[in-house]
């Protein structure tokens, strides 16, 4: 007897077979490639305590590839780990391993894989647009190292909605400004020195994720040095020069005050061929720019004047120098005056004065005035533009004539010593 099967019976058997196959052990899969992200593979996720994706993260029992992708949309890559953890960042340099090592199902979708212990399924965000430094009126200088002493030390502003524009406004009275760590703004008047790779400034700004706002220990900097005026008080701008305590560029008289301005310095140095401002508060005069002087870029003279924030007064070990268009004739002291004859430039010491008799000071000091003050003494000497010393004994030793380079306060055609230097005269009867 031949047994036949109806068509309906065959369909029933086929359906039973499909159901049986569906009830077999689940076969976990990676999320199918989507236009918005592409799977890169399975990677070691933590090496020596450092995560390969370290910018942002979250964990949840509803974790899926899609939810992690959405969370990390502002980053170039994202990764899933331990079934319920999501990490964002840049996985460059991560160590690849076998796909079999990423075996945990996603907590929110058991049909997807979400890494394993210390293993991450990493995807590239195809729609990611890298943040860039903002384009502002101030020139962009680059990404700089900011570790230890701050490169821009002033006027910190912290704001979770930080943007480069907000920082520029905050630092309007400074030459330079920079953004760091996604939310910090720093200001300063000296340019940063140690440049870093642009890729090291990778944090998006809290207030505009299309802009870069530095990173940890890295700062995006904008700005330019304040230009010196072309002329001040009859002096024309010469340039920015190196100036050191042991190697002065201008060796005339010196003034220091917290409210220094270029105009004050020009007035103080009237009668000299040159004046220079440094460190925001100091003024130097001189008839000659020393041969050892070295001119440097204007950017190195960027410290605002203590009494005028609209102008710069040099910087640390940097001097803004202005010069007269027509050099003054060299001052010349009289060979004899009031019964005294010129000896030489002489060294002085605060603890052991070369002349230890009478002392007077006057802002209008001249050689003639000092000779009258010291009438009856064996010697007199003029020093630091304004001081007159008398004595009957002359101690110490002669100094080079170039070290007596300060003009007399009352007569700019005469020399009146220098800092711890005297132009000394001896009585004709000595």
Descriptive labels:
6-stranded antiparallel beta sheet, 5 helices, 4 domains, 430 residues, mainly beta
**Secondary structure: helix percent:** 10-25%
Query: Got a strand count?
Result: 34
- Cα radius of gyration in angstroms: 39 Å
Number of helices: 5
Shape: rod-shaped
Intertermini distance: 159 Å
Oligomerization category of the chains in this entry:
single chain
The mean pLDDT is 87
Class from secondary-structure proportions = mainly beta
How many domains is the backbone divided into?
4
Low-confidence stretches are: 1-27, 29-34
Task: Provide structural commentary.
This is Fungistatic metabolite. One of its GO terms (cellular component) is plasma membrane. Residues 36-126, 137-225, 234-325, 339-428 form the WSC domain. Residues 1-24 form the signal peptide. It is found in: Membrane. The structure is a single chain. The chain has four domains: 37-125; 140-223; 231-323, no CATH class; 336-427. The radius of gyration is 39 Å and the shape is rod-shaped. The strands form nine sheets. Strands 18, 19, 20, 21, 22, 23 and 26 form a seven-stranded antiparallel sheet that branches. The chain has a six-stranded antiparallel sheet with strand order 4-6-5-10-1-7, with helices on one face. The chain is mainly beta and 430 residues long. The chain has five helices and 34 strands.
